[in-house]
Specification:
single chain; 229 residues; elongated; membrane; signal; transmembrane
């Protein structure tokens, strides 16, 4: 009888601990978390003693980790403390950043088109027309560099998304978007470098044009890829 009472007592003491730990166990069916389930996920993390790794994804862009990582600048300065409630706000900020990223992406694409038209006219212009079109071309280049840089920063510095147990393997539109980003970023740098050297060395004009067209093609393809996501 004494042993039975001891077993019952241990069972009563153990059940709450087991229930608390079981909130951390996730079956394979539970791993398919969608962004729309952000509130449920953060509520679950708030109920458990979640650590930083449970609140943040394991993989982040280095710029995201520098600002939003467990030891990022915004965490160390206590501007954005890492907590379930804080992460809920960060997901809203992330959405605003990425929407702005897409809008500015289209603005930059329109700038590329206008710059291409001006560039074609510049190659055939002479005299006063050349000076006028060149000034327009340089102004447009400044605007494109600003909008392009802002578009990139909105993506690179946005708060990280939800932690996911598994990521889609193989080809995806977002992977294509990122691969094309490397291409048009490289082309953008090359185009700007060559634009400063063309004045002293006109023989570089074909290379400048090729870099500009490559940048435009990769950038347009990247926008189409993300729209197909």
């Amino acid at each position: 009888m004494k042993h039975l009472l001891i077993v019952c007592l241990l069972t009563i003491l153990y059940l709450p601990l087991w229930a608390q730990d079981s909130t951390r166990v996730r079956t394979p069916a539970d791993t398919s978390i969608k962004p729309s389930d952000a509130n449920d996920l953060l509520a679950e993390l708030g109920d458990s003693t979640a650590d930083a790794q449970e609140l943040l994804p394991k993989k982040m862009v280095f710029t995201q980790r520098a600002f939003w990582g467990p030891k990022g600048l915004l965490r160390l300065t206590n501007i954005a403390p890492l907590s379930p409630q804080g992460r809920e706000k960060e997901l809203k900020i992330r959405r605003a950043f990425l929407v702005s990223h897409q809008v500015l992406g289209f603005v930059t694409l329109a700038g590329f088109v206008a710059q291409g038209i001006l560039g074609s006219k510049l190659y055939n212009a002479k005299g006063l027309d050349y000076s006028r079109i060149k000034e327009q071309h340089e102004t447009m280049a400044t605007l494109i560099n600003f909008s392009y840089g802002t578009t990139a920063l909105l993506s690179l510095t946005s708060p990280p998304g939800l932690p996911t147990a598994s990521r889609k393997r193989g080809f995806s539109s977002i992977k294509l978007h990122r691969a094309l980003a490397v291409v048009h970023l490289t082309g953008m740098v090359a185009t700007n470098i060559l634009s400063h050297k063309v004045g002293k060395n006109p023989d570089l004009k074909p290379y400048h044009r090729a870099a500009a067209y490559t940048t435009f093609g990769a950038y347009a393809a990247a926008i189409i890829a993300i729209k197909l996501k």
